[in-house]
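so my prof wants the structure for this chain in the tokens format not the other one, which i didnt know existed until like an hour ago. anyway here's the sequence
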Amino acid sequence: MNNNGEYFENLAEIEKLWHELKKNDFPQKLRDDFWAICVKGRILFWQLAIDIKDEGIPMVKTVPAFQRAIMLLEHEKKLKNAIRLCEEANKWEIDTDWYAKRIKKLKNKL
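here's what i got, hopefully its the right format
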């Protein structure tokens, strides 16, 4: 797992910017920056997940690059895109039912 450090640095960036977004009422420039950080985070996660599976290590329980991006899409009322991202996350067999519950919540909002 050679991208561990970068992955965890990205997690910290995601959380920091998420709190800034909420505090500043989600300005477009911050949303764009946040989305870019989440895309990078998902790429880093994919690399980590492949290593985890290859090494037989249990899958992580949370992936903020997915969860926060889904929450942003929900805030922007892009519910179908949020559902698609939940479905993508589910394919990675992340050890949580958060995505299945979120899909149900999002579908109820449609």
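also thought this was worth mentioning. The chain is about 75% helix and 0% strand.
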